[in-house]
From TrEMBL:
Cell wall formation. GO terms for molecular function: ligase activity. The keyword Phosphoprotein does not apply. This is D-alanine--D-alanine ligase. Pathway: Cell wall biogenesis; peptidoglycan biosynthesis.
Length: 330
């Protein structure tokens, strides 16, 4: 099917980068590129390298669709460069992305907005090294209890994340998290049903897609469970009572609004035994691979991936550069 309009921009799908999530990003980029081409749109796929700025500076009628995962793609820095160059793009602006990406900051923002969050402690590597693992293990156990979750403050795809059930497991879990960043967050483990909710704004206001329930075969939704076909069962719509599913959708919409996000986000939640959704994290560049939850939710909503992505591109083109729109450009 083609819905090509003569005014449609060329779309530059950015994928790859140098983060630990490069492979996932490339898979997301290929899928979105194919979906946009299926609508008859002009698509270029590119990595992030030294030629990117010159390509963007010399382009006209171009919209960037960033599908870079991990630090370079989701910490806001690339998006601020796009704004600096006056290039419209799909997704949240740099400052909002920066807040959402850092789990230690995002959890605080969500909690201050009245959203349920797990108790959390953020520990820089220097503090952990200087004060010693033994003393901190005891203090963390007293404050958070076991089991607990340990993960890098800045990162995605569950890389460096692990569940800690006993005190003797904590030092190794901290080392694993520090392998992916200088700050680790330690959270009280929330027992319940893991779900994720995508929020999409196609130019008419944000809407929550059907809730996706996540059931990893291993019991832990780690990197392997996320990106290996058959390792996780995704149920969409989630097998939750209607009122709890609605509560999850409302929470995701609230997160999207509180963080000042745009176009597309995905909020990960745990629904506790009392039916209360607890915020885990929010993603501004959710995966679009064959094993990702967002395309599944799009299909359950009766949309096509190509049409949704095309609508997001057109909304970004109509909005234009955020810097110019704010009167900061020339």
């Amino acid at each position: 099917m083609s819905d090509l309009d003569s005014t449609d921009p060329t779309i530059l799908v950015l994928a790859g980068g140098l983060s630990h999530e490069r492979d996932v990003s490339l898979r997301s980029g290929r899928r979105v590129g194919q979906a946009l081409r299926s609508r008859g749109l002009d698509v270029i796929e590119a990595d992030v390298d030294s030629s990117l700025v010159a390509r963007l500076a010399g382009a006209s009628n171009l919209v960037v669709f960033p599908l870079l995962h991990g630090e370079a793609g989701e910490d806001g820095s690339l998006r601020e460069v796009l704004d600096l160059l006056g290039v419209p793009f799909v997704g949240s602006a740099g400052p909002a992305s920066r807040v959402a990406f850092d789990k230690s900051i995002a959890t605080t923002v969500a909690a201050e907005a009245g959203i349920d969050t797990p108790a959390q402690v953020a520990l820089p590597h220097e503090i952990f090294r200087e004060l010693g693992a033994q003393a901190l293990v005891s203090a963390l156990g007293d404050q958070l209890g076991f089991p607990m979750m340990v993960k890098p403050s800045r990162g995605g795809s569950a890389l460096g994340a692990s569940k800690v059930s006993r005190p003797e497991e904590l030092p190794a879990a901290m080392v694993g998290a520090f392998a992916y960043g200088q700050v680790a967050v330690v959270e009280r483990f929330v027992t319940g049903t893991e779900v994720t909710v995508a929020v999409v704004d196609r130019g008419t206001g944000p809407k929550a897609l059907p809730v996706v329930e996540i059931r990893p075969d291993s019991g832990v939704y780690d990197y392997t469970a996320r990106y290996t076909a058959g390792e996780t069962r995704f149920i969409c719509p989630a097998e939750l009572p209607t009122e709890i599913a609605e509560r999850c959708a409302e929470t995701a919409l609230r997160v999207h609004d509180v963080f000042g996000l745009s176009d597309l986000s995905r909020t990960d939640l745990i629904v506790d035994p009392d039916g209360v959704p607890t915020f885990l994290e929010v993603n501004v560049a959710p995966g679009m691979t064959e094993t990702s939850s967002v395309p599944l939710a799009i299909e359950a909503a009766g949309w096509s991936l190509g049409k949704m992505c095309a609508d997001l591109v057109r909304a970004a083109a109509a909005r234009g550069s955020r810097r110019v729109a704010a009167g900061q450009g020339t």
